[in-house]
Design goal:
Layout lengths: L1 H11 L5 H11 L4 H21 L12 H7 L5 E3 L2 E3 L10 H8 L7 H15 L35 H16 L2 H11 L3
Helix pairs in contact: 5-7, 6-8, 7-8
């Protein structure tokens, strides 16, 4: 392997090659002001990298409680039945999360109020993967059990995130009333 490396290096830096010309130019400007600045930046970058690699975590970070988030959030927040509804911003477009955000209102859920809970719920259940499957047979973004239940929302239920999301929002509305109630149940029972 070393022999190959030496041979390749000799070929790359052979007289007349582009790399050879660059090496000559670099040698010619070693003492220049530009080279001194570049060297100073390189030294600083090495020092910063070393500092970042020596970072140690002294304590485990604590996540803010929903009440703390709500207190820090200047937007409208409602709290009912021990559930704190924190306003949410739209997700990145062209994702399953964006599909959910955009159709939530058609199920009677204000996405600014309920998307955060839905996001937490399906992050936990499937990571928003349309092909997520667990050993129990639960499938898709909402983890329908069995997955074939989602056929009621469309024949493409196995591969279409929009179909799965429509089914999942209907399921949540029917059983829990809204995504925050479903998420509260999930947190207590590790399923919904």
């Amino acid at each position: 392997m070393a022999v190959i490396g030496v041979a390749v290096g000799a070929q790359l830096f052979a007289p007349g090659s582009a790399a050879y010309k660059i090496a000559q130019a670099m040698g010619a400007v070693q003492g220049s002001h530009t080279m001194q600045l570049l060297e100073a930046e390189r030294v600083q970058l090495v020092a910063m990298t070393d500092a970042a690699n020596t970072l140690t975590l002294v304590v485990r970070p604590q996540l803010a409680s929903p009440a703390q988030v709500a207190a820090a959030n200047p937007g409208p927040v409602a709290a009912t039945g021990g559930i704190v509804y924190v306003t949410s911003t739209p997700p990145d477009p062209h994702t399953a999360q964006a599909i959910a955000y955009n159709i939530m209102a058609s199920f009677g859920f204000d996405p600014k109020v309920y998307f955060g809970c839905l996001q937490d719920l399906w992050n936990h259940e499937s990571g928003w993967r349309y092909d997520a499957e667990n050993p129990s047979g639960a499938y898709g973004i909402p983890q329908a059990l069995p997955g074939s239940k989602m056929a009621s929302a469309g024949s493409d239920w196995q591969t279409n995130p929009a179909t799965q999301i429509k089914w999942g929002l209907g399921y949540i509305k029917q059983l829990y009333g809204n995504p925050c109630n479903a998420w509260a149940f999930e947190e207590r029972n590790n399923y919904y």
